[in-house]
Design a protein that fits this description.
Keywords: 4Fe-4S, Glutamine amidotransferase, Glycosyltransferase, Iron, Iron-sulfur, Magnesium, Metal-binding, Purine biosynthesis, Transferase
Number of strands: 23
Number of domains: 2
InterPro entries: GATase_2_dom (IPR017932), Ntn_hydrolases_N (IPR029055), PRTase-like (IPR029057), PRTase_dom (IPR000836), PurF (IPR005854), PurF_N (IPR035584)
Radius of gyration: 23 Å
Family: In the C-terminal section; belongs to the purine/pyrimidine phosphoribosyltransferase family.
GO molecular function: 4 iron, 4 sulfur cluster binding; amidophosphoribosyltransferase activity; magnesium ion binding
Helix content: 25-40%
CATH architecture of the largest domain: 4-Layer Sandwich
Protein name: Amidophosphoribosyltransferase
Largest sheet: 7 strands, antiparallel
Distance between the termini: 36 Å
Strand order of the largest sheet: 3-2-4-1-10-9-11
CATH class of the largest domain: Alpha Beta
């Protein structure tokens, strides 16, 4: 391959899910991270392995586990998928009944092993391990202040900021953790472990999900309920905004470090990120996404021959749209499930064809048909355009695009990897301009009211159904301006 073609790669790292940029061929929002914790089970490592496997969709870059046998830590981290990082021998060496685990997709922090979590430290009170999902908006400012005071950072992860705040405190761990959480701003689900304690905390707005379950006498914590189901644990409840749970020899202590603020669970969890078999705020996500499709059909019906969803995240919504309209649902597109990781770097010539690595149109299904294509969101618009053209190339006579979220116009500060606002197609174009750019026959988006109704928030007293929709309406639930040092995406 020529030097010129070598320069024209689809991603900048060794594999495409190492990070995003304007040349990412799969122009979708990237998952944040996933956390999983166990307290009081002799098979903590094995349970965590299966739990992390269930959360793999939340991060494919790295995976890690730290287990305590009440005397010392045993931990292992690696780059890659859960099944690549851990084997039977590795898991066998991770003995103990307390554990925290993590799967990571970096956006702010660099993609390297030192940033893989859980982060493990030794400080004045013993061993300390931390894992988080989310982003600390004011991490750059706090890091700079800590460095000026003499702290030396080993990673570029903002999770380490919390470790330093705890280590510099002269208070007991729980009080030090409370003080640390009060200083940080953002969306996060934190797990902190010592040799004998497990602490779990949610940000004051509940932006990032975290649930608690029970398996016998053991306590289980996970970013999504699907991980609890995987190991046979029973869901107890969601960890509440601003809550701090402490598990030690005295059992479960329910505390909080701050009063809850405006409830604002990330709306993209409902729309895209979480697995359809997970529940959030009492709502099953498959059912919620079906309702999004149904409401979408009520808001913007179009006569067509078939409905198809962009796999996998939009299939539920496509079924809902089809059921509401009576238009048949068909598998008009098939996803290649083996594109999760690859070290191949195609040339510029292949970039425009790159979407076919992941999706293929079923010609015999769409040929000669008027197609309604359901998708969950549009980021830069490049992938949507390629899919529309792919359906046309397969013989579709019309392609009508229906997006089951409002237009995505603003970057996320709380853990979702989003481009600069100027790269978001909805922030620079009208819907009609976007329709032309996508080469679609029509284009509509789900309304704000429709989204709230679909997730079951229309009867709720919570503002905006208890969701953060800043990516759509620029109404952020926290302060975001910290002297130009605010941090986008996911810094964990």
């Amino acid at each position: 391959m020529s030097d010129e073609l070598n320069k024209q790669t689809l991603w900048t790292g060794d594999y495409y899910n190492q990070g995003t940029g304007p040349n990412d061929i799969f122009d979708t929002l990237k998952e944040e991270c996933g956390v999983f914790g166990v307290y009081g089970h002799s098979e903590a490592a094995s349970l965590s392995y299966y739990g992390l496997h269930a959360l793999q969709h939340r991060g494919e870059e790295s995976a890690g586990l730290c287990v305590s046998d009440r005397n010392q830590f045993h931990y292992h981290r690696g780059m890659g998928l859960v099944k690549e990082v851990f084997d039977k021998d590795t898991l066998g060496s991770l003995t103990g009944d307390i554990s925290i685990g993590h799967v990571r997709y970096s956006t702010s922090g660099d993609s390297r092993l030192t940033n893989a979590q859980p982060l493990v430290f030794r400080y004045r009170a013993g061993e300390l391990a931390l894992a988080t999902n989310g982003n600390i908006v004011n991490a750059p400012q706090i890091r700079r202040e800590l460095e000026e005071a003499g702290s030396i950072f080993q990673t570029t992860s903002d999770t380490e900021v919390v470790a330093h705040l705890i280590a510099r405190s002269n208070k007991p761990l729980v009080e030090a953790a409370k003080d640390a959480f009060r200083q940080i701003v953002g969306g996060f689900a934190f797990m902190i472990m010592t040799n004998e304690q497990l602490i779990v905390a949610s940000d004051p707005n509940g932006l990032r999900p975290i649930t608690m379950g029970r398996l016998g006498e053991a306590y289980i914590f996970a970013s999504e309920t699907c991980a609890l189901e995987t190991i046979g644990a029973e869901l107890v409840r969601d960890v509440q905004p601003g809550e701090l749970l402490i598990l030690d020899q005295h059992g479960l202590i329910e505390d909080r470090y701050i009063e809850p603020q405006r409830k604002a669970l990330c709306s993209m969890e409902y729309i895209y990120f979480a697995r359809p078999d997970s529940d959030m705020n009492g709502a099953n996500l498959h059912a919620a996404r079906k309702r999004m499709g149904s409401v979408m059909a009520q808001e913007s019906f179009i006569d067509a021959d078939l409905v198809t969803g962009v796999p996998d995240s939009s299939i539920s919504a496509a079924i809902g749209f089809a059921e509401q309209t009576g238009i048949p649902y068909e598998l008009g597109m098939i996803k290649n499930k083996y594109t999760g990781r690859t070290f191949i770097q195609p040339s510029q010539e292949l970039r425009e064809q790159g979407v076919k690595m992941k999706l293929s149109a079923v010609r015999r299904v769409v040929e000669g048909k008027r197609v309604v294509m359901i998708d969950d969101s549009i980021v830069r618009g490049t992938t949507s355009r390629r899919i529309v053209n792919m359906l046309r190339d397969a013989g579709a006579t019309e392609v009508h695009v229906r997006i089951t979220s409002p237009p995505f116009k603003n970057p996320c500060f709380y853990g979702i990897d989003t481009p600069d606002r100027r790269e978001l197609i909805a922030s620079t174009m009208s819907i009609e301009e976007m329709r032309k750019e996508l080469n679609a026959d029509s284009l509509t988006f789900l309304s704000f009211e429709g989204l709230i109704k679909a997730v079951g928030g229309d009867n709720s007293t919570d503002y905006k159904g208890g969701m953060c929709m800043a990516c759509f309406d620029n109404d952020y639930p926290t302060q975001t301006d910290f002297g130009g040092e605010e941090q986008f995406g996911c810094g964990c």
